[in-house]
Here is the input.
Amino acid sequence: MSMSDRSHIVEQSVGLRFYLRLEHGFDAFFGAELNPWRHLGALGFLLFWIISVSGFYIYAVLDTSVEGVYQSIAWLSREQWYLGGVLRSLHRYAADAFVVVTVLHLLREFLLGRFTGFRRFSWLTGVPLIWLIYISGIVGFWLKWDQLAQFSAVATAEWFDALPIFATPLTRNFLSAAAVSDRLFSLFVFVHIGVPLLLIFGLWFHIQRISRAEVLPKRALSLGTLAMLMVLSLAQPVTSQQPADLSLVPSQLGFDWFYLFLHPLMYVTSAGMLWALIVALTLFLFILPLLPHGRASAIARVHPDNCNGCRRCFDDCPYAAITMVPHTNGRPGMQLAEVLPDLCASCGICAGSCPSATPFRSGPELVTGIDMPQMPVSILREDLEERLEKLSGEQKIVVFGCDQGARVADLEERDVASLSLICIGMLPPSFIEYALRGGAAGVLVSGCRGCVYRLGNLWTEERLTGAREPHLRATVDRTRLTIAWADRGEEQALAATLTEFKKTLANTPAHHQIAPPKRMTAHV
Amino acid sequence: MSKDLSGSKALSWVGQGLLYALFALFIGYFSTSPPYRHLAADQALIKLSFSLHGKLVSECRQRSPEELAKLPPNMRAPMDCKRERSSVTVEIDLDGAPVFRHVSIPSGLSKDGASTVYQRFPVVAGEHRVVVRLKDDQRAAGFNYSREATVTLLPGKILVIDFNLEKGGITLI
Here is the structure.
C-alpha cells in the first residue's frame, strides 16, 4: 500500500466551488478563525440566547388580554424605547437573523456533503429544528396583534384548514372581533415559549455526537454580532403596525419576509400546493442522508498491544467516536481505546494523537496504538523516507498537507516533497523532527483553513507549539517549520508561501546537524 | 509560526465593519420591505364561513314495548334516533350571477358531526347584491334558509356570511 492508493480525495461541485470562493472572500477580512461562515451553527446558538434573554423582559410586560396585548407591546416601543423598545427590536432582528444563519448553515452543510455517514445523526436531528424555529418565530408575530399579526394568523389558519383534520375551521377563530378571546393569546404565549423549550432539547440532541461543540462563537464574533444587532435596533426600532381589525383586510403591510414568506406563496399558488412543497422539501431533507452516497472510508483501528490507554485519542476525537474500556491485557486499571464505528469520521486525528505513532521507534514494523487502515503511520514513514531520498538541491523541503485542503502535490519540485494526509490532525509532530533529521531543510505544514474534521488544524497548532500532547520537542528549530492553512483552490497562494519560506531558509544559518534517525542513516 | 493565507490585517476592520453593516441592512430591509398588499386597493373581501349540524336524515321513531324489553335496562330509551345528519348545501349569487355552490358533508365516521365551509371571495369594492341560500335538511324539497341583501363594501372591508340559528339563520356581518 502507498499513500496514493487512497481514493477519498474530495472533489468539488460547481456549487461548492462558488461557496468556497465566497467563504474565502470573508477570510480576507475576518481571518479563517473568525469567519462567520465557519461558525453558522454557533451563531445560531448566540442568536437563540439573545432572543431568549430579550424575550424574558418582553414577556414580563406582556398583557395577554385582547384589549391589552397590542397596547402592552406598543408601550414598550413608545414609552420605554431605551430599554423595552431596544429589547423588542433585538428580539425581532435576532429572530430574523436566526432564520438566515439556520438556512445558511443548512445550505453550507449540504454543499459540503455533510449529511451522510457519521454526520447523519446531526443532519437528521437538525431538520426538525427548522420547523421549531419557524413555529416559534411566526407565533411571536401574532402576539403583538397588529394588522400584520392578523394577516399572518388568518393566513396560517387558512393554510391549516386545507388539511382535513379540524372539525371546525381554524379560520372561524378570526372571523370577527367577537371570536377572539383572551384565551387565544394565552395559547399563543404557551406556544411561543413552549416550542423554544423543545428547540433547546432538539439543539442538545443535534450536537450530541460532536465533542467540544461550539455553542457560542468566538468572543470577537459574538460581540460583533451583538453590536450589529444593537445598532440596527437603535437605527430602525421595531414598531407595531395598526391594531388588528378583523372587519378589514390589512392594507399595505410592512412585511417580514424571513418568517412570513409562506403566506404570499400560498396566495399565489394554493394551500394544497404549499403543503405539497413543504412536505416534499422536509421529506427530501430527511431522506437525503439515507440515499446511497458511495463507499464509506475505513474507520480507525486499535492495536491493543500498542495501546497503553493514555486517552489522548479519546480527548482529541472531534466526534466522540472513541471510548475507553478495560484493557484486554487484564492489568488492573489499565484502559484500552475502542472505536465506535458509527461515529468514526475516518479522519485519522486519533492516529496523530497517539504517543506510539512516532517514526523514531525502532523495530521491523511500526505498529501504533490506533491507526488508519487506509493510511497507516508506518506507510507515512516509508513514504517520507522514500521522498526525502529522491530530493535534490540545497534546500530540501517536506510539505505535509491534507486531502481536504490545498493540493500539496502541486508544490512538488526536485527539492520539494509532499505528503497529503487524510487530515493534517493525523500528523504526529515527531514526523517533523524526523524529516528535519532526515535531511530536510524545512517543513511546511498545511491543511484546510476551517478543518473539515473540525479540530484537525487546532490540535496541530497546539501540538506544534507545545500546548498539547503529543508535542513537537522544544529542541526542534522552529525557524525551519512553517504552517500555512489553505483550502482547495488556493494552491497558488500556498506556493507563494513556500517560495517565501525557501527564501527565509536560505537566509537562515545552517542548522545544527543532528544525527539522522537510524533507519535513515543509509539514505543521507 | 502559523500563517493564514487570508488578506492583510490592514483592511480587516474596515472590511468587517462593512460586512456587518451589509448583514444589518439585509436584515433591516427584509424585516419590513418590500411591503406586501394582500388585496388590490379597490377590493373588498367576502368570507363565507359556517359550522353547523345538519338536520337528522330521519325522524326519531318510538320504540315498541317489545323492542324496549329486548334492550338492557340501562339502554331503554323510548326514542330511536339515527345519528347521521344531512349534508349542508350552500349557494351564493353575487350581482345576479351564481359564484359558489358547495355541498358540505357532516364530519365524523358516522356523519353525525358539523358540516363546515370556509371560502373567500375578493370582490371589487362598491355596492353588491348578495343572495345566499342554504339547505340543511335532505328531506326538504328546496333551500330552507335564504338571505338577500344589498351591501356596500368599502375597499378593504370584510363581509362575513355566517349561519346562526339564534339570529335567524344566515347572517351578514
In short: Residues 4-9 of chain A have pLDDT under 50 and may be disordered. Chain A touches chain B through 65 residues (CB under 8 Å). Residues 301-521 of chain A form one domain. The longest helix of chain A spans residues 81-111.
